[in-house]
């Protein structure tokens, strides 16, 4: 992963790579002024619009005790879609300045995601642009959206998780997180490891689709958010994912070298399974599609 180094030169970028290690490289190219503006407006928006709603939810959750909280996450979220069609103009309670700043930030993150995908191609020996093309589907554009989350102080972090452990379903995920309040952890060698908040950093996480396309050369990383008793943690996670109709399969050059360990499927079909089993292990999801692929092959052979 050291080949990332020559491409960046100031600000910290953290990559959660196949071994679960953190690799710091420099200069993600997004201005710190823009990041500060995004952070300021996001925290103001939560305080003005979402805090009271969350407090009402939190009160009911904790009244129910441990059983009620077991399958819930201690977070307040909203989602913004950028591609294939933006919906930010339709989201209520966002003022015009916040919409403008979020659109600008999303454009910067989209460019960063595509640069990083090309760097992954270089590391893997794939043709430049292979991964971005694999994501584009019939309309020539990926799916790209942002989850804006707040993790308020939790009086009973022993009862509820900030966000339960999971791998991300999609492609490459770019996270701008609070630089004062921690809580993000990844699983490495069977142990949960903190991802410390670092000012003006972007955390890069790889999802299940890149594990499949790279035939396991890169692994999606199991991660979680631990609820904190103090501080309100901000998290802005942008997901650069395949188009809904993109056909996902191991890159032939990588499958030939290591054997086809992963299935072939349509991304939308994977997402339908993922939403039902997000907090379960990823391997049964892969196995389910391998089984379907095998059955289809047998039917064709006997037809």
Automatic annotation (TrEMBL):
<keyword id="KW-0732">Signal</keyword>
<feature type="signal peptide">
    <location>
        <begin position="1"/>
        <end position="21"/>
    </location>
</feature>
<feature type="domain" description="Fe2OG dioxygenase">
    <location>
        <begin position="142"/>
        <end position="242"/>
    </location>
</feature>
<dbReference type="GO" id="GO:0031418">
    <property type="term" value="F:L-ascorbic acid binding"/>
</dbReference>
<keyword id="KW-0847">Vitamin C</keyword>
<dbReference type="InterPro" id="IPR027443">
    <property type="entry name" value="IPNS-like_sf"/>
</dbReference>
<dbReference type="GO" id="GO:0046872">
    <property type="term" value="F:metal ion binding"/>
</dbReference>
<comment type="pathway">
    <text>Alkene biosynthesis; ethylene biosynthesis via S-adenosyl-L-methionine; ethylene from S-adenosyl-L-methionine: step 2/2.</text>
</comment>
<comment type="similarity">
    <text>Belongs to the iron/ascorbate-dependent oxidoreductase family.</text>
</comment>
<dbReference type="GO" id="GO:0009815">
    <property type="term" value="F:1-aminocyclopropane-1-carboxylate oxidase activity"/>
</dbReference>
<keyword id="KW-0292">Fruit ripening</keyword>
<keyword id="KW-0266">Ethylene biosynthesis</keyword>
<keyword id="KW-0408">Iron</keyword>
<dbReference type="Pfam" id="PF03171">
    <property type="entry name" value="2OG-FeII_Oxy"/>
</dbReference>
<keyword id="KW-0479">Metal-binding</keyword>
<dbReference type="InterPro" id="IPR005123">
    <property type="entry name" value="Oxoglu/Fe-dep_dioxygenase_dom"/>
</dbReference>
<keyword id="KW-0560">Oxidoreductase</keyword>
<dbReference type="GO" id="GO:0009835">
    <property type="term" value="P:fruit ripening"/>
</dbReference>
<dbReference type="GO" id="GO:0009693">
    <property type="term" value="P:ethylene biosynthetic process"/>
</dbReference>
<dbReference type="InterPro" id="IPR044861">
    <property type="entry name" value="IPNS-like_FE2OG_OXY"/>
</dbReference>
<dbReference type="InterPro" id="IPR050295">
    <property type="entry name" value="Plant_2OG-oxidoreductases"/>
</dbReference>
<protein>
    <recommendedName>
        <fullName>1-aminocyclopropane-1-carboxylate oxidase</fullName>
        <ecNumber>1.14.17.4</ecNumber>
    </recommendedName>
</protein>
């Amino acid at each position: 992963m050291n080949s990332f180094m020559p491409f960046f030169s100031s600000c910290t970028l953290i990559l959660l790579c196949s071994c679960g290690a953190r690799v710091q490289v420099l200069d993600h190219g997004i201005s710190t002024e823009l990041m500060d503006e995004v952070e300021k407006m996001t925290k103001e928006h939560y305080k003005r619009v979402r805090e009271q709603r969350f407090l009402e939810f939190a009160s009911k959750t904790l009244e129910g005790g441990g059983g009620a909280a077991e399958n819930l996450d201690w977070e307040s979220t909203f989602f913004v879609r950028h591609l294939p069609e933006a919906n930010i103009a339709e989201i209520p309670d966002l003022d015009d300045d916040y919409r403008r700043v979020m659109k600008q930030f999303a454009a910067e993150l989209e460019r960063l995601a595509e640069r990083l995908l090309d760097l992954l191609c270089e590391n893997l020996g794939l043709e430049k642009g292979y991964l971005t093309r694999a994501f584009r589907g019939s309309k020539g554009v990926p799916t790209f959206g942002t989850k804006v989350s707040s993790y308020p102080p939790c009086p009973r972090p022993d009862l509820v998780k900030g966000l339960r452990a999971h791998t991300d379903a999609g492609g490459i995920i770019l996270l701008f997180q609070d630089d004062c309040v921690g809580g993000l952890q990844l699983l490495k060698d069977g142990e949960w490891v903190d991802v410390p908040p670092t000012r003006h950093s972007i955390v890069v996480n790889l999802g299940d689709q890149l594990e499949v396309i790279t035939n396991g050369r890169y692994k999606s990383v199991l991660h979680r958010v631990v609820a904190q008793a103090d501080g309100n943690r901000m998290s802005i996670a942008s997901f650069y994912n395949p188009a809904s109709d993109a056909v996902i399969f191991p890159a032939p050059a990588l499958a030939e070298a290591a054997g086809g360990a992963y299935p072939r499927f349509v991304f939308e079909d994977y997402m339908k399974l993922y939403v039902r089993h997000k907090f379960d292990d990823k391997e049964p999801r892969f196995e389910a599609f391998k089984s379907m692929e095998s059955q289809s092959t047998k039917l064709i052979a006997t037809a």
